[in-house]
């Protein structure tokens, strides 16, 4: 009888552990599964720990339990190695004005993010404008939010995905040709 109870308990604990792992998939694995599905107009956001859980149907939030710089580097690596998307980088315009005395670590973060995003064009907008863009996009397109352990305000990195194999210049030329041809 004792063996049966012990075996049943062991089996139950194993099943519960497996269920817990399935209900909280590793964020890197989940991102890898989603990347082939994400495309032009989708967003990936790497956010600080106080970023709110959004309720829109098109928004998926994943807790990374990881350092923000680590998440940023890994996400950019995944995007850069994709064949179909490239990032348009947005950051909060407030970040350069956050004082170290009010947000310890902000100076170090600004230095690290400058290095991590070197060579990339960054569009700085007020936080509320970026959130308004994301809210609008989330009505139609999927957004992936990766929450990190970051505790510095206005440190989120917002990546709007764009087509890698079709440039903005090519799109502008196409529209110009279509406009000229329609006349």
Shape: globular
Would you report the number of β strands?
6
Total number of domains: 1
User: What structural category arises from helix and sheet content?
Assistant: alpha/beta
Question: What does this protein look like?
Answer:
The chain is of the alpha/beta class. It has a single domain, classed as RbsD-like fold (3-Layer(aba) Sandwich). The chain is 43% helix and 19% strand. The chain is built from six helices and six strands. It has helices spanning 2-23, 27-34, 68-80, 106-116, 127-137, 168-181; strands at residues 43-47, 59-63, 85-92, 122-125, 143-147, 157-163. β3, α4 (106-116) and β4 (122-125) form a beta-alpha-beta unit. The longest helix has 22 residues, at 2-23. The chain starts with a helix and ends with a helix. The relative contact order is 0.22.
Key structural traits:
183 residues, alpha/beta, RbsD-like fold, 6-stranded mixed beta sheet, 6 helices, 6 strands, globular
